[in-house]
Specification:
alpha/beta, Rossmann fold, GMP Synthetase, Chain A, domain 3, 5-stranded parallel β-sheet, 5-stranded mixed β-sheet
């Protein structure tokens, strides 16, 4: 792409100045920002940052939720040739130290008092931070830290500078080239220190345009930006594609109001990881279980029709006239109101990615008329590698390679990708760059998978995680922990799973229950409990989870590759896995190795045949305090099944 992000901003401001570019909800009221207003805001911030000393090629940290002024700050930095680095707003202070020092950051934008406190806390470890600009002044009136000032004061200085130097802003934008670095995203660091993924304007915009062409996106789309801006998926959907297409990005008032805001906006283009779709469905099912008998009967009858014919209607396949009439009636009585309740009444394209989505969950949304699809990509590939066409959405694949992408499978099963959207490099890490990028432009994804007969990509697991069972009846059988974990997470009562089995004679798992779903299940059975730890260890809950595990074992027994990955023993953890405790990454990926070390006594108990094990664990609360939680965990054996092939 022969353009840059700031140039696209100026094009939109010139061609459609009065059209809405972004909306932000404040005090319950949606406020619109036009393209011309956004361009003026970016100009004033850029001039202010220039006066503050931000130089071309420098990095600036931005940390906060999706806000027009956060996006404007990123654009302002890019207009000056500087490089924004978005950080996760829910990261603890210590997690900010490495990115700030690695990128030699001198300036930072912080959304509010919480983020300012975080940056001030790490200042002793990051003494080069000279200036911190904050957006929301609440709680900061009496702060007198050197270099701390409001974005409003920066804007005032920038406004004065732009009046005195009217050609400065546009002149700086024209200096930038498409192959200049546009942004840097730090990986989640599941196996060590995070790596700074360097992307240019060209790489990000190439993939943004490719995704837009694939789904025929226009300037008339509405998007809700509610996931962390530091995650490249949100950045592509609400920043790169926003500027590539010119559609409207809507920023929720807070994390607590996202569901209300979703209904009010009614996005046409939507993205959510599987756990969000799972949470929505769990909420629906809980409400239906509490509904009256007539409503429950009507819901069940209509959903039976939807599951049978809904996906075929979505895919444009022929459906009988009677079934069409039944579905149309169901649409009036159930599907339409349900889509409206979920906030999906206007969704034209909905994507999910990051983890596999359960076939029942996938089928549910498509059966009620929501065009949910899967995609495949990563931070290093600027997200868009494979996407599912509207009429080829399947729960067991991640789609076909889209324009500009080549895929091949290495001898060890690893997926290799070549496209114009690949990272330029890992920042200050040529060794890591050389490990993933070949001389002829192929990127090693570290994912194991294959292309099926229809050209769809199927992902099995991470290459490094695919192991072998050693000893016992399944000696030498393939073990794919993520595949096993995902199959269990398809059940609404299970939130998180950690599976072990490589170089061992059997597979064992540690499970987190979904507190809301299991809590509702327990209440309907008059089963009293006092918090998560108590509920997790109820014999009735163990029996519920055992049924889920054995259903997965039955499914695995029919899989010729992974029949040996059936689960022999499990336990339900006494606490929820948490990113603040280091057990998950900020993108909610399980840190399997860290958990194995932290809970080594539980792993040994699983494999040692013990019926229970006492554990005490230190936890970190949201306010920074630490405490401990302890329990004696039950360990349960499960039924495994003879592989279908062997039985035949």
């Amino acid at each position: 792409m022969q353009t840059t992000f700031p140039r696209l901003l100026l094009e939109h401001a010139s061609q459609r100045p009065a059209d809405a570019a972004m909306r932000e909800k404040e005090y319950g009221i949606w406020q619109s920002h036009t393209w011309s207003a956004m361009a003026l805001l970016v100009e004033h911030i850029a001039c202010g940052l220039h006066q503050a000393g931000l130089a071309r090629g420098e990095h600036i940290v931005v940390v906060g939720a999706n806000r027009p002024r956060l996006y404007a700050t990123m654009l302002a930095a890019q207009a000056l040739g500087a490089i924004p680095i978005p950080l996760y707003q829910d990261a603890v202070a210590a997690e900010c130290v490495f990115p700030i020092n690695n990128a030699e950051v001198r300036m930072a934008f912080a959304e509010d008092q919480e983020q300012v406190d975080k940056l001030l806390e790490v200042r002793a470890q990051c003494p080069q931070i000279g200036a911190i600009f904050y957006d929301d002044p609440r709680g900061l009136r009496n702060y007198s830290e050197p270099g701390l000032s409001s974005l409003d004061s920066l804007l005032a200085k920038g406004h004065a500078f732009s009046l005195a130097n009217p050609g400065f802003f546009k002149g700086e934008i024209q200096v930038a080239e498409p192959d200049d670095v546009a942004a840097m995203f730090f990986t989640s660091g599941t196996t060590g220190s995070p790596k700074g993924v360097v992307h240019t304007h060209r790489t990000l915009l190439d993939r943004a345009h490719a995704g837009a062409q694939f789904d025929k996106l226009t300037a008339h789309e509405e998007v809700l930006a509610y996931l962390p801006p530091a995650w490249i998926g949100q950045n592509i959907f609400s920043y790169a594609q926003w500027l590539a297409c010119g559609y409207v990005v809507n920023c929720p008032e807070s994390a607590a109001t996202v569901m209300i805001d979703l209904k009010e906006i009614g996005p046409t283009y939507y993205f959510a990881p599987p756990r969000v779709f799972e949470g929505l469905l769990t909420t629906v099912m809980i409400r239906m279980e509490d509904a009256g008998a007539i409503k429950r009967w009507m819901f069940k009858a209509c959903m039976d029709v939807a599951r049978r014919v809904g996906p075929d209607l979505m895919d444009g396949k022929p459906v009988g006239a009677l079934d069409k009439m039944k579905y149309a009636l169901g649409n009036v009585l159930v599907y339409g109101p349900l889509r409206n309740t979920l906030g999906f009444s206007r969704v034209r394209v909905a994507y999910t990615a990051g983890e596999a989505i359960g076939p029942d969950l996938f089928s549910f949304y498509r059966s009620i008329g929501i065009n949910i699809k899967q995609l495949y990509g990563s931070t290093e590939t600027a997200v868009f590698v494979c996407l599912q066409p509207d009429d080829q959405a399947r729960s067991d694949t991640v789609g076909i390679p889209i324009s500009g992408v080549e895929i091949k499978v290495a001898e060890n099963g690893e997926i290799l990708v070549r496209s114009a959207g690949l990272l330029k490099a890992y920042y200050k890490n040529p060794e890591a760059t050389a490990e993933v990028l070949t001389a002829d432009g192929w990127y090693h994804t570290s994912d194991a998978g294959f292309l099926d007969a229809q050209g769809h990509l199927k992902i099995i697991d991470r290459v490094k995680d695919v192991g072998r069972i050693q000893g016992g009846a399944n000696d030498g059988a393939m073990f794919a922990p993520k595949y096993v974990e995902n199959k269990l997470k398809f059940f609404p009562h299970i939130k998180e799973v950690v599976a072990y089995g490589d170089q061992r004679e059997k597979v064992c798992v540690m499970i987190n229950i979904d507190f809301d779903a299991v809590g509702n299940w327990a209440e309907r059975r008059n089963l009293p409990y006092a918090g998560y730890t108590d509920l997790a260890q109820k014999p009735e809950v163990y029996q519920l989870i055992r049924e889920c595990v054995e259903k997965v074992n039955a499914d695995l027994s029919a899989d010729t590759l992974l029949a040996g990955s059936q689960i022999s023993r499990f336990l339900v953890l006494h606490k929820e896995l948490d990113a603040d405790d280091g057990e998950l990454t900020r993108t909610n990926k399980v840190r399997r190795g860290f958990i194995a070390e932290k809970y080594d006594v539980l792993v040994e108990a699983l494999y040692g045949g013990r019926p229970e094990q006492f554990i005490e664990t230190q936890v970190k609360f949201e306010d920074g305090r630490t405490g401990s939680v302890s329990a004696t965990l039950k360990i349960m054996d499960t039924q495994t099944f003879t592989p279908v092939k062997a039985a035949a």
